[in-house]
Amino acid sequence: MSIPNCPQCQSAYAYEDRDLFICPECGNEWSSTSEAEVEAETVVKDSNGNVIVDGDAISVIKDLKVKGSSSAIKKGTNVKNIRLIDPSMNTGHDIECKIDGFGVMKLKSEFVKKI
């Protein structure tokens, strides 16, 4: 794999450091993955295969136990205005939302469906 020229100053002296390219002349850093690959990695789908995006409304498809609480999030609970998060940093949870009676929660997309 050849190292590309810097997209900012077109310098040929760029070098690779882990998963980034760095230009020593202008200090620009850019990712070695293309934007299309990054977008493909961030697609989140619900239990039915529908794509979920920020701001969508979802419904819980099964009772979910809440760690540290004696109550559970009941099947059919509707949640509005969700926010997608990086699942690799949160043990697989890829949705952050606010649920009435529970507060801010993190959910896995496999347990919800898009409304």
The outline comes out as: elongated
Q: Could you state the order of secondary-structure elements as H and E?
A: EEEHEEEEEEEEEE
CATH class of the largest domain: Mainly Beta
Provide the CATH topology of the largest domain: SH3 type barrels
- Nearest-integer average pLDDT: 88
User: What's the architecture of the largest domain in CATH terms?
Assistant: Roll
Q: Helical region count?
A: 1
Report the major sheet.
Answer: 3 strands, antiparallel
| CA distance, first residue to last residue | 45 Å
What do these coordinates show?
- InterPro entries: YjdM (IPR004624), YjdM_C (IPR013988), YjdM_N (IPR013987).
- Belongs to the YjdM family.
- This is Alkylphosphonate utilization protein.
- The protein has 1 helix and 13 strands.
- The protein is mainly beta and 115 residues long.
- Strand 7 and strand 8 form a beta hairpin.
- The radius of gyration is 20 Å and the shape is elongated.
- The strands form 5 sheets. Strands 1-2-3 form a 3-stranded antiparallel sheet, with no helix packed on it. A 3-stranded antiparallel sheet has the order 9-6-13, with no helix packed on it. It has a 3-stranded antiparallel sheet with strand order 10-11-12, with no helix packed on it.
- The protein has 2 domains: 37 residues, N-terminal domain of TfIIb (Single Sheet), CATH 2.20.25; 58 residues, SH3 Domains (SH3 type barrels, Roll), CATH 2.30.30.
- The N and C termini lie far apart (45 Å).
List keywords for this structure.
elongated; three-stranded antiparallel β-sheet; YjdM; 115 residues; mainly beta; 2 domains; 6% helix; N-terminal domain of TfIIb; SH3 type barrels; Alkylphosphonate utilization protein
